[in-house]
Each structure stands twice: as C-alpha cells, then as structure tokens.
Amino acid sequence: QVQFVESGGGLVQPGGTLRLSCAGSGIFFGNTVMAWYRQAPGKQRELVGDITTDNSTTYRDSVKGRFTISRDNAKNTVYLQMNSLKPEDTAVYYCNAPMPSSLPRFGWGRGTQVTVSS
User: Quick one: which of 62, 13, 12, 16 has its CA closest to 36?
Assistant: First the structure.
C-alpha cells in the first residue's frame, strides 16, 4: 500500500555533499510528518531528522548544521541535503512517516546507500 523509494546515495569523499530523495506512493506527504533514518553496518537504525507538515525540522545532534530536510508536496517527495559529510555518516538511508515515538508508521523501503570514504 504505502511505499517509499529512496534514491541519490553514492560514494563521496569526506567533506562532500549528496542530496537524497524519497518518493512516496499510497501516501500524501502534504499532510504527513516525514523523517529520514539511517542504519550503519552492525548498528541499529536511527532517526536522522524529521520535517513537519508546516516544514519545521528537527535533527539529531550529530548532523545538525550539516543536513537539511525539505519537501516538495506537489512531487510527493522529501529530500535530505547532506553537506560536509563525514565517514560516520556512512549508512543506508531510509525515509518513513514517524509516529510520535519516532518508530515508523509503514514498512521500510530499500533505502539508499551513502558511503563517505577517502
């Protein structure tokens, strides 16, 4: 029913930039809080940040000032602009609609791999 397709990941050097996209189907982003998550190898999936329906954003401390979440409701797409990337940002990045607990409302997409390495 509800599906997310993440894209835009890749291999980038430390200090580089990437912009990830998340396209949704079976859901209208315009009235949905959206969030980005990531899962590094051998680690738990963690919340990166979220964006409310009025475009307020919240980020985990480790990405504050470097990552920016935005949305284009007409395209039913949410973005994650990633600047000043660090090796610690290496992970598979996912989007979803978060519940107040930050747990996802829907099933996970395949995610998109971000690798930050020199």
Answer: 62
Q: Which of 87, 92, 113, 72 shows the shortest CA–CA distance to 15? A: 87
Distances (CA, A) of 9 to 3, 78, 80, 99, 113: 18, 14, 10, 25, 5
Where helices occur in 1-118 by DSSP H, the ranges are none
Kindly report the CA angle at 113 between 107 and 117, in degrees rounded to 5? 150
DSSP secondary structure string, 77-91? EEEEEE-S--GGG-E
pLDDT class for 80, splitting at 50, 70, 90?
A: very high
Q: Could you read off the pLDDT of 13-62 as tens digits, one per residue?
A: 999 999 999 999 999 999 999 999 999 999 999 999 999 999 999 999 99
